[in-house]
Amino acid sequence: MAFCALIMAGGTGTRLWPVSRRHRPKQSLKLVGDRTMFEHAVDRIAPLFQPEHILVVAGSDHVPGLSQQAPGLPPENFIVEPMGRGTAPAIGLGAIHLHRRDPDAVMAVLTADHFIADVEHFRSVLSASEEIARQGYLVTLGIEPSAPSTGYGYIQQGNLLRTVDGFEVFHVERFTEKPTEETALQMVESGEYTWNSGMFVWHGERILEEFQAQMPDFRVQLSEIESALGTNSYEPTLDRVWQRVTKQSIDYGVMEGAEEVAVIPVDIGWSDVGSWGSLAELLARMGRRDDRGNVVVGKHVGLDTNDSLIFGNQGNQRLIATIGLHDMIIVDAGDAILVCPLDHEQEVRDLVHRLEREDMKGYL
Amino acid sequence: MAFCALIMAGGTGTRLWPVSRRHRPKQSLKLVGDRTMFEHAVDRIAPLFQPEHILVVAGSDHVPGLSQQAPGLPPENFIVEPMGRGTAPAIGLGAIHLHRRDPDAVMAVLTADHFIADVEHFRSVLSASEEIARQGYLVTLGIEPSAPSTGYGYIQQGNLLRTVDGFEVFHVERFTEKPTEETALQMVESGEYTWNSGMFVWHGERILEEFQAQMPDFRVQLSEIESALGTNSYEPTLDRVWQRVTKQSIDYGVMEGAEEVAVIPVDIGWSDVGSWGSLAELLARMGRRDDRGNVVVGKHVGLDTNDSLIFGNQGNQRLIATIGLHDMIIVDAGDAILVCPLDHEQEVRDLVHRLEREDMKGYL
User: Fold this and answer.
1) Topology of the domain comprising B3-271
2) How far apart are CA A185 and CA B140, in angstroms?
3) Whole-prediction pTM
4) How much is the ipTM here?
């Protein structure tokens, strides 16, 4: 009857280049304070889960770095994904590990690279979610939207299912993909929608049944891996099977087609820290915006500089001096510097693709 | 009857911060190609002057660096100025040294930190100037204006005096200070004005007579130093006298009030390289502007970046990545980075003053 956490630590955070890199993914960065995103992710659930009940799914390149950041977790709790196949396969892999350990476990699928300001409230909603999950629901945490963002998927609430520990739990009417600006505005104004945070709570058997029903080929692949669990052939089996696994997100692969899905709308100071602008907003919310509207990390001298993010290098004391700028992002990552207006922040991804195309591997 | 050069190497080039620093002044920077500005200044006159006829006036801090850059010049030809007092005292100090060595010398006052593209033409006009100077004229080199700049003083031509080696030599009607935009436009359209380059050719006795007539107190101070020349008391005398010397420019102190002043208008590809925009223009003229209008020195990847100067650090391979920028200056000096729109380039000076006020000495 254990309550377990599965921390998804697979991404890299491309839009946080040049600080995020292949060998230095977003979850290993100290973007907020002196702790890495992954350290924050482990710290905030530590009071709720015993260390042996916290599992981490990550790529083999990243496991050594992550386990160094969380020395309290047993080494065998780091589950290596041979290559990234999207959230559905990563969750499936974690689920068979958990199911083998405890067939009655409820699992909370959490993220390694998001920030949550109100950790107590977060732990309360996780506890409430466990109770709903034990009743057979797939529970999703829906973030109460602070703006009509087009950067997230949305969850539409249906009827109120019940209230647990002060949290209202709704039937999910439907999951929607990232909307247009107009649609996002309508959704937020309706009060019926929350952002899809990518955090879920469900019973281990329940999610494996959903894979069986909605992704039957993948469920067969999982069974093949499952049968090798705890044997010498586990790794070769995983490597072999994973080659054939199709990329899929849990939203599209499972959630959108599932029955008995619940959402708990929460306001926990959540941020996906998905881009430099998003980090600036988060740091501003934490009181790091000065009276010129600038968010400054590191050494900066500015003349007539407003509403900008200045993110200095943490390894040295390099000074960033600016004159006559507004709404700008300046990031110094030591071996690379980014200068980009805030309203072009999404194009950082294109820049990284350009570096890939031009074979500038040293900067990836 | 020697023809001598006096290279004025006193300035620091504040507007080229963060590359220019107190201990690394503009004349010691490799802004154009692989040679420092001072090396360019010495190289281009080497065919015209014997090394012992090239004198350099500079602050004591800068002399070791400059003499390393010009190992062919005799060490005693570096004349130390105890502190900067403007161009008039620096020229006066050089003049008494030259006059002691050769009372009949004609001296060319040249700059250490300007760029001249057409060096052969430059040497020709220096030779022609010597001839005019031997007739008793104070000769100034006037730069044919390429734009109605408000950043330079202007020289108005009077009657044609004569032609020497194909160069037209005019009486100077008057020197004018930096004009307003409207005045600058009128002056350039009239065809009667050239920019004051700060380069002069005159007989050593002639300039000392002008100091006598127009800056008599300073001439007395010079005599006191002159009498100590070649003795052990030279340095203490210089230090003592220099404390009392009044700051003065040669334009205001001598040229504006002098008689028998000639100007030779020249087109020698001159640039004062006085600011980042000025360097960008110079490098563009030398073919260094790409098809997006960018002038790039170092490693750069840009998306939607136009008409900007990207000046990377020469000591490492740091990448400067930009998105959605235009008409921007980005300069990486290793321990400091500047980001500034081109039309704010003059404010770099204010930024340096701010660093002084805030006691950020490490960056000065």
Assistant:
1) Spore Coat Polysaccharide Biosynthesis Protein SpsA; Chain A (3.90.550)
2) 69
3) 0.91
4) 0.91
